[in-house]
Design goal:
Layout lengths: L8 E6 L7 H7 L33 E11 L4 E11 L6 E7 L11 H4 L10 H8 L9 E6 L7 E4 L2 E10 L4 E11 L12 E5 L4 E6 L5 E2 L2 E2 L3 E2 L15 E10 L3 E4 L2 E2 L2 H4 L2 H10 L7 E4 L1 H8 L6 E11 L4 E4 L3 E9 L2 E9 L6 H20 L7 E6 L4 E3 L2 E4 L11 H16 L1 H6 L8 H19 L14 H4 L19 H20 L2 H14 L7 H10 L6 H8 L7 E11 L4 H18 L2 H7 L4 H4 L17 H13 L2 H8 L3 E9 L7 E7 L4 E6 L10 E8 L3 E6 L14 E2 L26 H9 L1
Parallel strand pairs: 2-14, 21-22, 22-24
Antiparallel strand pairs: 1-25, 2-3, 3-8, 4-7, 4-11, 5-8, 6-7, 9-10, 10-19, 12-13, 14-18, 15-19, 16-18, 17-20, 20-21, 23-24, 25-26, 26-29, 27-28, 27-30, 30-31
Helix pairs in contact: 7-8, 7-10, 8-10, 10-12, 13-14
Bound molecules: zinc ion.
The site of zinc ion (ZN) has 4 residues, from α10.
Protein name: M1 family metallopeptidase
Pfam families: Peptidase_M1 (PF01433)
Length: about 775
């Protein structure tokens, strides 16, 4: 409309002094960043719909286990027998089954140590060298007998961490097959070079062991509509793809051990003392504080003896994808009830005295908080228990997880230990939701559970403590990774085993991306509904990345293909710059005012012309010498106003509607901002306008502004107030890797560099990281 009125715009431009490459611009102008993902996604079908939900013929396999296992505390080994009933719900006929043997990853046939790169340094730890030598003859499955339900041996082929059982007859759709496996292996020291998730920790001071048993029995591999058998070898990093089923597990351990496990303890009367049973029953009705069922004093007493008797603990678990357990005579045990979805969940912790005072104060409370926080954003926690075990570790299993966080021997601890412990408990308990219940394929995609869980963990942390350390710049923390050199960057959509920068790529970047989706791209309301819908749709099922991508769009009406493309399939960073700002004001002057302004401008220009120089150089021009060369234009007043000018102006003003007149008389500032996409990853523009009067305002422009030109866009903002400073992404939401270009006028801040004398380090003495210890020593 402004252009139709035929008004000139007077320009008061703040001209950029920066230059940029025209060639690079045209090259990147259209890199299809807004094209639909199309064939990059798996085709929808009757099992998985185009909207990201399970299809009308969705199926998944089931495996039920009955297991008897005995722990030998004298030589740190276990042996067991399991009966597996495998139910073929697929439409396919199966002629063999694949079973996972993760324990063999630590055995002599393992490829894991062979493919691990190694090098010699002038200074090396013993553990690193032991890792290079990797003596593993005694590990891996020692006994492995597979039999059918009649007790006849079944033909098997063991290929390192995978075992194929050849079926006597093809297993048709809807049929089930039962087989048993006898097995045994030596438990590894997870504190040694072998490390790994399961194993034991030895406490030399009291001569006791603490066992965290995981990946401890042959488990059914997943057979699915999207991948067939998931029988990729286990190299130690790409975790697990597992089948849901019901478990009954009988665990025989020394009589003075305390056992915690996936599922519900079936025989507390047999394995607990009368006092413990009484406290356990009290805990089941206590909602405000954890009840200690085995105290530190009781555990310390048990540490000193070694019972030769045995006890068998019986656990049952329904609809779980795995089963893990822990056992030690060192364990303190506490528990409390949490109301969740109309039923009670028992939040519990098992820890040795080495974990106190931290564990007694925090662990079970954090478990309870995590269940509530995650449930509110997904679905009601469906399992009867949730357990946190102190095991110098951080690893998750259904209903039980192994965590770290020990104070110093004097009972003090640093802030890092405290928050590290709370974070790892939130994280590992949170894994109950992803991937224990929303059961993605971890061996293929680490990010599908770690990324989603890290994102949820961040929100649970903010709900725990307003000053939680992670509150600062959740998006900005990914910047160092996004800035790293191209050869170290891979898309989030990279297989678990092939990831170079594992933590940033599979945890932090997807978590950051989801946080940006929620806070910046979709908004909380749309995101939370869609995310919950994904969790609800895929609860107790096997989702793929496509199911997540499609559901978040399906439930929100936000086209996110560009976002998945940039953040999940690409490696480009966010780096958007304010390239230029031009300032315009509407020309609403009268003809007289206009001419006066023109005259002033003309005269200003004249001052730049060195008349003295011209005079000296050209004593007399032709025109000055010869009147015959002059005409009208050599003497007319170019700044005089004609009656026509006046008339036209009057006519124009009379033609204006009241609304148009109002606009004409307004004193709006028009700011034409040019943004350059330096990094490549397109993102919304979040612009803060800081005004001359000290106030400010933020405008948000969706990422689609880049859809016609992915390299440079220009946009006009009309403001009544005068802007003194433009800031792009003022709240650091987008992980922009170069913030110096986010200001107009540019702002520069000095970086400090340290000066010190001699060979010493920091100028000031080290402040240490345990203020609690310093406070205590002051008191003494
Ligand atoms: Zn995790």
């Amino acid at each position: 409309m402004i252009r139709k009125l035929g008004l000139a715009l007077a320009v008061f431009a703040l001209v950029s002094t920066e230059s940029w490459s025209q060639a690079r611009r045209s090259e990147q102008n259209h890199a299809e960043r807004f094209e639909q993902l199309g064939t990059m996604l798996r085709s929808p079908n009757v099992y998985r719909t185009a909207s990201g939900a399970p299809g009308h013929m969705y199926w998944q396999q089931q495996a039920n286990y009955v297991i008897d296992v005995e722990l030998n505390d004298d030589n740190q080994s276990i042996s067991g027998r399991e009966t597996v009933t495998y139910i073929n719900n697929s439409p396919d006929v199966l002629t063999y089954l694949w079973v996972q043997l993760e324990e063999n990853q630590r055995g002599p046939e393992s490829d894991a140590p062979k493919v691990a790169e190694s090098s010699i340094n002038s200074r090396m730890t013993m553990r690193t060298l032991e890792g290079i030598l990797w003596e593993n003859e005694e590990f891996g499955y020692k006994v492995l007998n597979v039999k059918d339900s009649e007790g006849n041996a079944l033909p098997v082929a063991v290929n390192k961490t995978m075992m194929r059982i050849d079926l006597p007859e093809p297993l048709k759709s809807g049929e089930s097959f039962s087989f048993s496996v006898d097995w045994s292996f030596n438990i590894t020291d997870r504190m040694s070079y072998i490390s790994g998730r399961p194993g034991y920790e030895f406490f030399p001071e009291d001569g006791n062991y603490l066992y965290t048993m995981a990946e401890w029995f042959p488990r059914m591999a997943v057979y699915s509509d999207f991948e067939g058998w998931q029988n990729k070898q286990f190299f130690g990093r790409g975790e697990f793809a597992l089948v849901f089923g019901d478990y009954e597990v009988r665990i025989t351990v020394p009589a003075d051990h305390m056992v915690g496990a996936t599922g519900v303890l079936q025989n507390p009367e047999e394995v607990l003392s009368a006092t413990e049973l009484e406290r356990w029953n009290k805990a089941k009705k206590t909602y405000d504080n954890p009840v200690i069922i085995r105290t530190q004093a009781e555990a310390e007493k048990l540490e000193k003896g070694k019972s030769k008797d045995k006890k068998t603990w019986i656990f049952k678990a329904e609809n779980v994808r795995d089963f893990a357990w822990t056992s030690s005579r060192k364990f303190i045990w506490d528990a409390m009830a949490v109301k969740q979805g109309g039923k009670d969940v028992m939040a519990m912790s098992y820890y040795a005295k080495e974990g106190n005072p931290l564990w007694e104060q925090y662990s079970t409370r954090v478990v309870a908080h995590t269940i509530k926080s995650y449930s509110a954003k997904t679905f009601d926690y469906p399992y009867p228990t949730a357990i946190s075990v102190e095991g110098s570790n951080g690893m998750e299993y259904p209903m039980i997880c192994f965590n770290y966080g020990r104070p110093d021997k004097d009972g003090t601890y640093s802030e890092a230990v405290k928050y590290g412990m709370i974070s790892v408990i939130i994280h590992e308990v949170g894994h109950n939701f992803f991937p224990m219940i929303v059961n993605s394929d971890e061996r293929q995609w680490t990010w599908m559970d770690e990324g989603l869980n890290t994102f949820m963990q961040f929100m649970a942390e903010q709900e725990w403590d307003r000053n939680y350390p992670s509150r600062r710049g959740p998006a900005h923390k990914i910047v160092p990774y996004m800035r790293s050199e191209k050869q170290y960057l891979e898309p989030i959509m990279t297989n678990s085993e092939n990831i170079i920068q594992f933590g940033p790529n599979a945890y932090a970047k997807p978590a950051t991306a989801l946080n940006i989706l929620r806070e910046t791209v979709m908004g909380r309301e749309l995101f939370d509904f869609a995310f919950k819908e994904y969790a609800r749709r895929w609860m107790f099922k096997h989702p793929t990345p496509e199911d997540l991508f499609r559901t978040l769009e399906d439930a929100s009406a936000v086209d996110l293909d560009w976002f998945w493309r940039g953040w999940f399939y690409g490696t480009e960073p966010v780096d958007i710059a304010i390239q230029d700002v031009k300032w315009f004001k509407l020309d609403n002057r009268t003809p007289a005012e206009n001419k006066a302004a023109e005259k002033a401008e003309f005269e200003r220009e004249e001052t730049y012309i060195s008349k003295e120089f011209n005079k000296a150089d050209v004593p007399q021009t032709v025109l000055e010498a010869d009147p015959a060369t002059r005409d009208f234009y050599n003497s007319y007043d170019r700044f005089a106003i004609t009656p026509e000018d006046e008339e036209e102006y009057k006519r124009f003003m009379a033609s204006l509607s009241p609304k148009e007149k109002e606009l004409m008389n307004s004193d709006l500032n028009f700011y034409e901002l040019t943004f350059e996409n330096v990094g490549g990853l397109v993102m919304p523009l979040i612009i803060e306008f800081q005004y001359a009067d000290g106030t400010s305002e933020i405008e948000r422009i969706p990422a689609e502004i880049w859809k016609l030109n992915e390299t440079e866009v220009t946009k006009v903002f009309a403001k009544e107030k005068e802007v003194v400073q433009f800031v792009l992404d003022p709240m650091r939401e987008t992980a922009d890797i170069d913030e110096s270009s986010n200001y107009w006028p540019r702002q520069y801040q000095p970086s400090r560099f340290e000066l010190f004398k001699g060979r010493g380090g920091a100028r000031g003495a080290s402040t240490g990281d345990n203020p609690m210890k310093r406070a205590q020593s002051k008191r003494k």
